[in-house]
Amino acid sequence: MTQKSPSSNQYKLGLKLISPYKIPKVSSSVWQLLNTFVPYVAIWFLMVYAIQFSWWYVLPLSILAAGFTVRLFIIFHDCGHGAFFKSKAWNDTVGIFFGILTFTPYYRWHHAHLIHHRTAGNLDKRGVGDVWTLTVEEFNKLPKGRKLFYRIYRNPFIMFGLGAVLIFLITNRFTRKDFSRRERISVYVTNLGIVAVAVGISLLIGFKSYLLIQIPVIYFASASGVLLFYLQHQFPDVHWYRDEEWDYSTVAITGASYLKLPKILQWFSGNIGFHHIHHLSSKIPNYKLEKCHTENDLFVQVEPVTFKKSLKSLNLRLWDEVNQRLVTFKQANV
């Protein structure tokens, strides 16, 4: 017997269910800082030592360091939502510092990310803090050159390879005319922090050695981070809506995935695979997401995106409004 999907009213009940999980626990937050930042620094010391012998000794360590960089980013992310500490000052201080370590300007990134939370799954409000996605009709109306550009952009090797690292290394370094004063300062402070760290380490081990360590770390971390973000909102059963039908609580559950990862990857990704819970309330600290999911039947009913499903997701390119689903270029017959 097929289980019926919860109604939109049931999803709204989820807003009540999550209330007990919103309050951060200082001891848990401090422990997560320690079990993430301390190993990250320790691995850097190991890489600095290893590069004296061979860069090939550094490479496997850089993959491990990238895993901890993703965890740093999750804490950075929670701080921006005001979810990691009760104190705004502590959230901002830790967030800005971890933003420097993850090459991401704190206030600028979170401005776009908060817009993403308010518009995720809304077909009429795409374009800020999301993955560029066209409808089949929109794609068909594009000139040939733009169609080619979109195809290149949506290619996994570009999106998760070259594109991901360019965002963190290059795009995040610049301001735009539409940035607020605080966003601009955020970019400048982050850039100065990155330069200060780079100069400090380079004075100890040399600039070349610094680059040989830092670039692989940021490459693996950025590729992993962008892939995670993609799978959180681009999967076979995702539901997106036009503005008049869009509902925050419904789209949180149907428009954000429950990405079921192996425990070790779940740990490194800071439980962000419970993205349906996170979108229902961004105030829940990452270390409470799994508890919230498992203790409430409404959330347990959500079908997970497994490894097999995630592979299928990589071929999805366009939103088919007729059939209400993401499709491949082949399925769209374009």
List the helices and strands and how they pair.
Blueprint: H1 8-17, H2 26-50, H3 55-80, H4 88-101, H5 106-119, E1 134-135, H6 136-140, H7 144-153, H8 156-169, H9 181-205, H10 207-233, H11 248-254, H12 263-268, H13 275-280, H14 289-294, H15 297-300, H16 307-313, E2 318-320, E3 325-327, H17 329-332
Parallel strand pairs: 1-2
Antiparallel strand pairs: 2-3
Account of the 3D structure:
The chain is mainly α. The protein has one domain. It has helices at 8-17, 26-50, 55-80, 88-101, 106-119, 136-140, 144-153, 156-169, 181-205, 207-233, 248-254, 263-268, 275-280, 289-294, 297-300, 307-313, 329-332, and strands spanning 134-135, 318-320, 325-327. Helix 2 runs antiparallel to helix 3.
CA-based gyration radius: 20 Å
Poorly predicted runs of 5 or more residues: 1-6
Let me know the number of strands. Answer: 3
Largest sheet: 3 strands, mixed
SS content category: mainly alpha
Helix-strand string: HHHHHEHHHHHHHHHHHEEH
Number of domains: 1
Rounded mean pLDDT is 93
Give a brief description:
This protein is mostly helical and 334 residues long. The protein has helices at residues 8-17, 26-50, 55-80, 88-101, 106-119, 136-140, 144-153, 156-169, 181-205, 207-233, 248-254, 263-268, 275-280, 289-294, 297-300, 307-313, 329-332, and strands spanning 134-135, 318-320, 325-327.
